[in-house]
Specification:
The chain is α/β, with parallel strands linked by helices. Helices cover about 40% and strands about 10% of the residues. The chain has eleven helices and twelve strands. The strands form four sheets. Strands 6-4-3-10-11-12 form a six-stranded parallel sheet, with helices on both faces. It is globular and about 60 Å long. The two termini are about 25 Å apart. The C terminus is likely disordered.
Length: about 350
């Protein structure tokens, strides 16, 4: 990626996208549901449109949120994932040899119930994101023209860059396919060999395929626990196939199978980076493996980053993320902290920054 502030030098850039990257973009239509209902907005959306979007599971999922938080209003999608996964692991992992038979039966019941609840939640997530991507009511049809910020970002990408995203949605792929289709060559953009039809336009491949590494999976990945060397892409018209979604929980095992290959590719991309841009990622405590990936991988390289930028409305989150990259930041590194997308784009385009968004 080229930066005006480095004299238009093209730096090998690693771009890290969290949920805030999707939620913080400004969709030009300005309608209530012209953006994906991420995390805290998920259950509020489901309460209004669940009957249309996911009629078989929405009531179950809303009841789960209410059971765990007292109300589904403002409840966090990722936090519900954490709680259900913890219950599942508790029922599964507690040593049986020390327990009475009736207690073992109770643990099996906990494990089974939590497993069923997790599946209902995953199914509902896929239904919601499928509606969003297709532009079915109440969503506005997504196209590159809807995005204020992803588009100018992807327009500056280069072949040696890499995108690491923790989002289940495919907004960044949609924008790249619209504006930079040459990045979608015959090789898989997801860092591992795939089977199934890519949803995006395939451009001419003359330099390779730029990796888009989805560290929490995607609603368009197919869950195949028995296969560890091929990523299967979902047929979006087949609701019987479970999506491959890896929530940010303490218990996730991301170093095995298909996801393990994607995470290893991500570690290499981070380690080789000359510049890093982190947008909307908060490094939640439950996602300690992701924090370890960012921090440990960067620690392997002795070369300092030439540029580091973090975008997040929360000062606490900005500081937390910056500390992950501390081993690669020195006095020669250009460091930028922004409260929103706008000034990042202004910085990339060498335009005047809004003082209220710039963080000293």
């Amino acid at each position: 990626m080229k930066f005006f502030c480095t004299g238009e030098t093209s730096l090998r850039t690693c771009i890290v996208l969290g949920a805030g990257a999707s939620y913080g973009d400004e969709w030009l239509f300005g309608k209530s549901y012209s953006r994906p209902p991420l995390d805290a907005g998920f259950f509020d959306y489901l309460s209004y449109w669940g009957q249309r979007v996911s009629p078989l599971t929405f009531e179950t999922v809303l009841a789960l949120a209410k059971r765990e938080f007292g109300t589904f209003r403002g409840a966090g999608l990722e936090e519900l994932f954490n709680r259900l996964t913890a219950k599942y692991q508790f029922g599964k992992d507690l040593p049986r040899s020390l327990l009475r038979s009736d207690t073992i039966t109770s643990l099996k019941d906990i494990e089974t119930q939590a497993s069923q609840e997790l599946e209902a939640l995953k199914s509902t997530i896929y239904s919601v994101y499928s509606y969003f991507s297709k532009g079915q009511p109440p969503f506005v049809q997504f196209s590159s023209g809807n995005s204020s910020y992803h588009i100018p970002l992807v327009e500056r990408l280069d072949w040696h860059d890499a995108i690491l995203t923790f989002n289940y949605d495919c907004i960044v792929e949609e924008c790249i396919a619209e504006r930079r289709p040459e990045f979608f060559g015959q090789a898989s953009p997801y860092g591992i060999r795939h089977k199934g039809q890519l949803r995006y336009r395939t451009g001419r491949q003359n330099k390779g395929t730029m990796p888009i590494l989805k560290l929490h999976g995607s609603v368009y990945f197919e869950s195949r626990p028995d296969v560890d060397n091929v990523l299967f892409l979902r047929d979006e018209n087949d609701s019987r196939i479970d999506p491959l979604i890896v929530p940010p929980t303490f218990e996730k095992d991301v170093f095995q199978g298909v996801m393990g290959r994607i995470w290893r590719r991500a570690a290499n991309a981070i380690d080789r980076a000359e510049a890093a841009i982190v947008i909307g990622y908060s490094s939640p405590s439950a996602d300690f493996k992701a924090s370890a990936l960012l921090g440990t991988s960067l620690g392997k390289s002795t070369k300092p980053l030439k540029l580091f930028a973090v975008v997040n409305p929360s000062e606490t989150d900005r500081i937390r993320v910056a500390k992950l990259f501390g081993s690669r930041i020195n006095g020669d590194t250009l460091v930028f902290q922004f409260a929103d997308w706008w000034d990042l784009i202004m910085m990339l385009e060498e335009r005047p920054l809004k003082k209220e968004s710039w963080i000293d």
